[in-house]
Design goal:
By secondary structure, this protein is of the alpha+beta class. It folds into three domains: about 110 residues, no CATH class; about 90 residues, DNA primase DNAg catalytic core, N-terminal domain (Alpha-Beta Complex), CATH 3.90.980; about 120 residues, Dna Topoisomerase Vi A Subunit, Chain: A, domain 2, CATH 3.40.1360.10. β7 and β8 form a beta hairpin. α6 crosses α10.
């Protein structure tokens, strides 16, 4: 197998495409071999317009949901698009982008109007509150941040539909504008991962204090729950207010998230240990620093996850502050 785990028939034909990712048991996505990433909105992540299929009962094949290109894997290499074809692709992509943006804005308006995350917050009985308490979040902070619970969150994995109880984490922008609702699955099937955002909405960074904007000095950690526990320990309990604490959804920064963090003057980056200790080269930490702007970043490394250390009594707010003050420039 190749680095993307593409089966040989697909790899021989399309293994050189950029942004190849496995989508399900029988499906992979990438940029398109014809229209490439033309017109793609990178705020939503890398291109996934070309979908390749293998092992689902049909012949190995690929199709682009942008330009409509289709081919079986054993056919010859396609000719490059003509100028007229490329112009048509661009026009179609522009129309789709406008339609997707309209749909996203409609969903944002619905979230702002209906505030369905409040229903999940209302579901917080004693057992649900205990789950958050065990994660290091006391009741009063659960209420302030509208944290919630649902006992039946539908999610898909490998083309199958599953259900799991889940903790719910609304993500707000400055001024408490709701931007997304994230679900932390409590009983996912093996390999499915724990987190699911609201489909159709861009995934923002997590603000622990939406009363504040994102200017000044920020401490960026990995994940909303880590951000909440860090904020509680350092800011609310330790009264250390120099840094605003925010959370990245993952070990990468999308263009949309980078745009949110643009007002910050200085950023301390504290990711999980598996991101690497050096911001140089091809490490995950290095890529995050490059995206945020190396000239304004400091990097902080801990021997374990920051919330685990706090919960184990191995890291106080004062000790974390000392780590930040001795952090190295990226």
């Amino acid at each position: 197998m190749n680095g993307h785990d593409l089966p040989p028939p697909l790899a021989r034909r399309w293994g050189g495409l950029a942004h190849i990712r496995r989508r399900s048991r029988y499906e992979w996505s990438s940029e398109c071999p014809r229209c490439r990433d033309d017109g793609h909105d990178y705020r939503k992540g890398p291109p996934d317009r070309f979908h390749m299929h293998y092992g689902d009962g049909g012949s190995p094949r690929g199709a682009c949901r942008r330009c409509g290109y289709f081919s079986f894997a054993d056919e010859g290499v396609e000719d490059p698009p003509t100028p007229d074809e490329l112009a048509a692709y661009r026009l179609a992509a522009l129309k789709r982008k406008r339609s997707e943006e309209q749909a996203r804005q409609a969903l944002l308006s619905a979230l702002d109007r209906d505030r369905w995350y409040e229903k999940f917050a209302a579901n917080m009985d004693a057992d649900a509150r205990l789950l958050w308490q065990r994660a290091g979040v006391p009741d009063e902070l659960q209420v302030r941040l509208s944290l919630g619970y649902t006992d039946r969150k539908p999610y898909s994995y490998m083309d199958e539909l599953y259900y799991s109880p889940a903790l719910t984490i609304p993500h707000f922008g400055p001024g408490w504008k709701p931007l997304n609702v994230q679900y932390r699955l409590l009983d996912p099937v093996e390999g499915a991962g724990k987190y699911r955002p609201t489909a159709g909405l861009l995934m923002p960074v997590y603000l622990t204090d939406p009363d504040e904007d994102l200017s000044g000095e920020l401490l960026v950690v990995e994940g909303a729950k880590k951000a909440i526990v860090t904020y509680l320990t350092m800011v609310l309990q330790g009264n250390i207010t120099r840094w605003k604490v925010v959370g990245l959804p993952a070990k990468e920064v999308s263009p949309y998230q980078a745009e949110m963090l643009a007002p910050a003057s200085t950023i301390w980056v504290l990711l999980d240990p598996d991101a690497g200790e050096s911001p140089i080269g091809d490490s995950i930490l290095g890529k995050v620093v490059d995206t945020l702007g190396r000239e304004r970043c400091y990097t902080v490394c801990l021997p374990a996850k920051v919330d685990d250390m706090i919960m184990a009594g191995q890291l106080s707010g004062r000790q974390l502050m000392e780590r930040l003050l001795t952090a190295r420039k990226a």
